[in-house]
Amino acid sequence: MSEQPQLKRKAKGERPYFFEDAAVDKLLAMLMGLAGEVSVLRDRLDTVERLAEQNKLFTRAEIENYQPDEVALQERAARRALYLGEITRIIQAELEGMQDAGEVPYSQAVDLVTTEEQPV
Amino acid sequence: MQTSELEQNRHAILPQPNHDELARQQFVRSFKEHLVAEVHPGNRLAYEHRVKPAFVKQHGREPDDRFEIRDVMTRDPHYRMFSALLRTSQEMMWSASQHPVQRELQALVEKAKSTPGAGGRLKLDPTLEIPRYHRAVDIHCQPGGYHTEVTADDVAPGAIYDRAVFIYAMGQMGPDNADMGGSTLAWIKANYPNLNPERILDMGCAVGHSTVPYAQGWPDAEVHAIDVAAPMLRYAHARAETLGAKIHFSQQNAEQTDFADGSFDLIVSHILLHETSEKAIRRIIAECHRLLRPGGLMVHAETPPYKSLEAFDAFMLDWDTRNNNEPYWGRAHDIDYVELSSRAGFDPQQVFEVMAPSAYQIAQARRSKVFQGGDFGGGGLWFLYGAEKQES
């Protein structure tokens, strides 16, 4: 099978960055990319809701009036806690490192394996 | 066909996005509308409230021109945020426009080959050299520019451009992106009621979105359109045929064409001049002079020259020069049209520069009425420059 021709993805020309640290521009671009994908998901959900209503599965009013029961409340809370834990993992990891008495500067670990440990 | 301000007319050649591809494109349009309505005005606010006062305090006077304003505004945090977001919106626009084209590229190529006939011809010239000013950077950040081909009989750049122009202008050029052609046509008909052109040439036609109104407005005229980029022309041809507009497309550089002297009654272009160069623009206007019959008319549509704008607005309209791969944009907005035309052989007395109202009135209420980077068509007026060729 022949390779599908690929469109060029980058425009020729040096890209301007507007902040002193180009990482800020890059993070903004990633943020807007993410915002775009959230909007895509929201539109897709909107389509599902409208089709469901059109096909008489359930109405959007039913969604608005939906009252989660205790089980649903607990499952949702747990999912949100896990979600936030995953997203903010780097902050927790740093705190856990501080709490770990055995954590030494990384250079010490490098020294250890290059000087103290001799090849056999 | 639907006629909505919110979406483009889905003619048969336009790529068909799937659900999420369409949602992604529509997000970019909404993002751009948000920038125009909510973020862009902050630039003037920041300028008036802190940037200009700081300049006055330091220099004892206000900034003289757009260059001095640029020096200080490029350090302002709001301007930086605005610029970073606007540049990002431009990149997202091209990316979102590319996805459906990449997915159905071969089908698009085949579809373009077999369009119903309005009778227009397509003549390509594989030996034509793509001008340096199109090879140096990809103009307005379209990856690959107008001319790059990745497959035989490629139409991808045209298919991407047709969709991206609608998103770029946020629908302000109408459901067929036809407003530049439509407005110029309306202005010519109003001001030259006796001009019934038999032969019309559109220079730098891209996908022919501005050419179609002329073919519709003067159905008996022979309409020609030229561009340097073959993939744009293949798409333009298929697009015009499917819209029932008889247009003869050929791959030619407007600086030097193969048409005979005095071949045309009317020559037009739409945002062509700023995508050329200092040398090219002189050759193009001289070529217009050669190609017009005595008494013939040329009209070039652009955004307004900086001399007609106050310094801050000129600075904001100049955003694209540095930030959107439009290297000639700034210089082109400072052109002395009288000097340019007279050197090309036109009578300086015949040169006109006017602002023509947009023919697409539906968008009128929503327009910002400002000429500024990232808000194409927002001004609601098009700048027209042109001249009649003297009767000999």
Briefly, what is this?
With 120 residues, chain A is mostly helical.
What can you see in these coordinates?
The complex is a heterodimer of chains A (120) and B (392). The model of chain A has no long low-confidence stretch (mean pLDDT 90). Chain A is built from five helices and no strands. Helices cover 65% and strands 0% of the residues of chain A. Among the domains of chain A are: 19-66, no CATH class; 68-102. Chain A is an all-alpha fold and 120 residues long. With 392 residues, chain B is an alpha/beta fold. Chain B has one domain (1-392): 3-Layer(aba) Sandwich (Rossmann fold), CATH 3.40.50.150. Helices cover 43% and strands 12% of the residues of chain B. Chain B has 15 helices and eight strands. Chain B has helices at residues 19-39, 41-59, 66-73, 77-103, 105-113, 132-135, 156-168, 179-191, 212-217, 230-242, 278-291, 311-317, 319-323, 329-332, 337-343; strands spanning 122-123, 199-203, 222-227, 248-251, 264-270, 292-302, 352-357, 381-388. An eight-stranded mixed beta sheet of chain B has the order 1-4-3-2-5-6-8-7, with helices on both faces. In chain B, α1 runs antiparallel to α4, α4 runs antiparallel to α7 and α7 packs across α10 (230-242). Chain B is globular. The N and C termini of chain B lie far apart (47 Å). Chain A binds chain B through residues 4-13, 15-19, 24-25, 28-29, 32-33, 35-37, 39-40, 43-44, 47, and chain B through 19-20, 23-24, 26-28, 30-31, 74, 79-81, 83-85, 87-89, 91-92, 94-96, 98, 101-102, 105, 136-138, 141-145, 148, 150-151, 154, 156, 160, 322-323, 325.
